[in-house]
Design a protein that fits this description.
The protein has 20 helices and 14 strands. It is an alpha/beta fold. A hairpin with a 2-residue loop joins β5 and β6.
């Protein structure tokens, strides 16, 4: 839906209403810049975005434009994938009724960043992104801690008896200490990084601490830059080409970013009409060393990357592997944005000659348990021996069942077990972030901090462990995960990129033929979630609705 109408076509009725707000009529001689802001008081990721909007407006006014702000849904972790789609459609709908010349998108978190990218692709007016930056770490038991990643460690310590409830309360009291996206390289910071890597945000935008003046400097500069993009008619589809998407995937692999980014980039590609099969993610991963030492795949907080140049430095290290001729929102090609000396390898961002791992942090897994694909963030595996592993299945029918069973301190489970969580995929329960199941008490108390887990749901990008996610097709629609029984041997082989149930294929077919779908966890027949349950696609297709694809996208 490339919008053809411009703000000069705003009718007199709408102009008169805006004049009634106190704007002078002469301002309508200027290009109208729609500022789409996800500001909210509900969470720290968005609380500070009102100030960023004011900085953007300064830049727009200074460059000769007229900024008008619109507030959207404000989505934070814990919200579901359906709301990503809803936000993308809502934003597109607003531009259909409120014509503008160009757009500035202000966003921070897991779902709103990809939703805004998806909307920008559909609207295709000159656009630029202003990112909300990252939270600073807190201090707990003498160490820097970031939310979610270190919570997982703290929960394991609690289950192992290494800390008590008082220490756990201290953790919660200190970990959310500033505004901004969650402090590790979770989905929020990953998608901010992807936005910069795609060329849709100014260089240096991602990884900036949300409390730093540089965040507001970037916002004002973006307000000025959008006027240049408008004058030169540079649009999102000129920037987000397949080459730019490949660059972003390479950055994702080099940083060991969130597995959720695979779903979001797949969805974005389908909005753009680009062919992006899962195999391309894995091909790029095999070609790209993992070079970024950030939690949950490392030891530093995202704000620590800012001190060594952030995503721009990661891209400089990757320069020989990137397509440097892509256009960016600076109005220049990527090669021009990277015209600075390549820094020496350091403990936060390594060089290609000194990688942390020889391959990228994420892998696409297939096999008889994942015929159309699954995702493993192997850079976040705490015990790398588990990446080549065979073990008996411990099956959970859904997240509530897992919580009930794992609360039993006497559960007979060993480090060799493979925990299988099913019926938590897109159709079953909106694909929640339940994949990183806590370890059984006996395993934690034996000194282990990881087990193989296999699931058709997601996990937060802030979490770690040997967790095979997004198994497709999901069990709820009859995917092979539905055939697994307690005690069956499951094999994970990272080198071969395989996940297999070591049961004869004939027996698997027999079990699936006799399989009866479980009662749905939710029964949405009305309201916005009814659309999701009727039309959502599987994870390997980006969890979109068919009508959200670009017209040229093959089915």
């Amino acid at each position: 839906m490339d919008l053809k109408h411009r703000s000069k076509h705003i009718d007199e009725y709408l102009k008169s209403m805006i004049v009634g707000e106190g704007y002078r009529a002469k301002n309508f001689n200027k290009p109208v810049i729609q500022i789409v802001n996800t500001w909210s008081e509900w969470n720290p990721g968005h609380y500070h975005l009102r100030g960023l909007s004011e900085a953007v407006k300064r830049g727009v006014w200074a460059a000769g434009g007229m900024p008008l702000e619109y507030n959207t849904l404000s989505l934070c972790p814990g919200q579901t994938l359906p709301n990503r789609n809803l936000l993308a459609m809502e934003t597109e709908a607003v531009f259909l009724s409120e014509p503008a010349d160009a757009a500035v998108f202000i966003c921070t978190c897991d779902k709103d960043v990809p939703a805004m990218l998806m909307a920008a692709a559909r609207i295709n007016l000159p656009s630029i992104f202003v990112l909300g930056g990252t939270m600073l770490p807190g201090r707990w038991l003498g160490q820097d801690v970031v939310c979610c990643t270190d919570e997982q460690r703290a929960v394991n310590m609690l289950r192992a008896g290494e800390i008590g409830e008082a220490e756990m309360r201290l953790y919660w009291d200190c970990v959310y200490c500033t505004v901004g996206a969650c402090g590790p390289l979770g989905t929020a910071n990953t998608m901010q990084s992807m936005t910069e890597a795609l060329g849709m945000a100014l260089p240096g935008s991602a990884a900036t601490p949300a409390t730093h003046a540089a965040l507001f400097h970037n916002a004002e500069a973006a307000g000025e830059k959008i006027m240049e993009l408008l004058a030169r008619n540079i649009r999102p589809k000129d920037i987000m080409t397949i080459e730019a998407v490949h660059n972003a995937i390479r950055v994702l692999m080099a940083m060991g970013g969130s597995t959720n980014a695979v779903i979001h980039l797949t969805a974005l590609a389908r909005h753009l009409g680009l062919d992006l099969p899962l195999e391309r993610f894995d091909q790029i991963s095999r070609e790209t060393p993992f070079i970024t030492n950030v939690k949950p795949s490392g030891t530093y907080a995202m704000s620590d990357l800012f001190e060594v140049g952030g995503v721009r430095t990661v891209m400089k290290q990757l320069e020989p592997l990137l397509d440097l001729d892509v256009m960016t929102c600076t109005g220049e090609k990527l090669r021009d944005n990277l015209r600075f000396p390549r820094p020496a390898s350091n403990d936060r961002i390594h060089s290609l000659d000194d990688p942390i791992l020889p391959e990228g942090g994420l892998a696409v897994i297939r096999g008889n348990l994942a015929p159309t694909g699954a995702i493993l963030k192997h850079s976040a595996s705490a015990e790398r021996r588990l990446l080549q592993h065979k073990g008996p299945a411990l099956v959970f029918e859904n997240g509530d069942h897992a919580q009930q069973v794992l609360s039993d301190e006497n559960l007979e489970a060993t480090p060799d077990h493979v925990m299988v969580l099913r019926n938590e995929g897109p159709k079953a329960s909106c694909m929640p972030e339940r994949g990183a199941l806590p370890l059984p008490y006996k395993v934690a108390r034996a000194g282990h901090n990881d087990m193989v887990r296999v699931t058709d749901c997601r996990m937060s990008g802030t979490q770690w462990g040997t967790v095979v996610l997004h198994v497709s097709p999901e069990s709820y629609v009859g995917g092979p995960l539905a055939a697994v029984r307690n005690g069956d041997i499951v094999e994970l082989n990272l080198e071969k990129r395989e996940l297999n149930l070591l049961v004869p294929e004939e027996e698997i077919r027999r079990r699936l033929a006799a399989w009866v779908p479980p009662e749905p966890q939710y029964d949405y027949k009305t309201g916005p979630l009814a659309l999701w349950y009727q039309m959502c696609e599987q994870a390997d297709q980006g969890c979109l609705y068919p009508f959200m694809r670009a017209a040229e996208q093959p089915s």
